[in-house]
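The instructor's notes for this session suggest beginning with a concrete chain rather than abstract definitions. Hand out the sequence below and ask the class to guess, before any prediction is shown, which regions might be ordered.
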Amino acid sequence: MKTVLVVDDEESIRKLISYNLEKEGYKAIAVSSGEEALSAAFDTVPDIIVLDLMLPGLDGMEVCRILSKDSRTSAIPILMVTARGDDTDVVSGLEAGADDYITKPFSPKILSARIGAVLRRSNKDMKNRGGKGVVSIHGINIDTDKHEVSCDVHPVSLSTTEFAILELLCRNPGWVLSRNQIISAVKGEDYPVTERSVDVQILGIRKKLGEQGKYLETVRGIGYRMAEEQNETAN
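After discussion, reveal the predicted structure:
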């Protein structure tokens, strides 16, 4: 049975979501604040988190950032809930570490379907990574089995989406991938995210990689690539 952590400050919404998820065969844990969300996530390590961005005190965006940076919870997919569906909110949420989003108002059936889709993509990602070992290029080391990244032995904390994008590019050095190709490869062709969000994810990865971030190259008008390693030759 999959466990869903539901985070919303409105009791009626928490109860409605929890009731419908349990009818669908999920185990629902419901909390009302960002602080409670962090505590529950670290204690139970749920399979997915449904996180409302508009929370009193510690808001959903900050909760998302904290969870995505902690090794104990960085692999947990987060479905953010927002009352506003404009690009700015969506991109900000994805930059903070969310994996998908849904806008209010929504039907319980739609939410259940989106949760199922995120979990299927997450499971597929894990299966595809299994047994592939370590990918190394430009001092960037990706351990796909442990879901860990390091740059010259220094650990780098990435969200699930950032990890998938970096792995994709590192496995195909020199190949230019369009934003749509990146979205399709990482999340599936039906992933409802604008191309701009890919730019935000790439920017976040570059910052976290530090000096090695320069090897994530922008190909103007097309997309992105991981630079090929150049072999030194003697004259």
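Then share the key points. Confidence is low (pLDDT under 50) at residues 127-131, 231-235. The first helix runs from residue 11 to 23.
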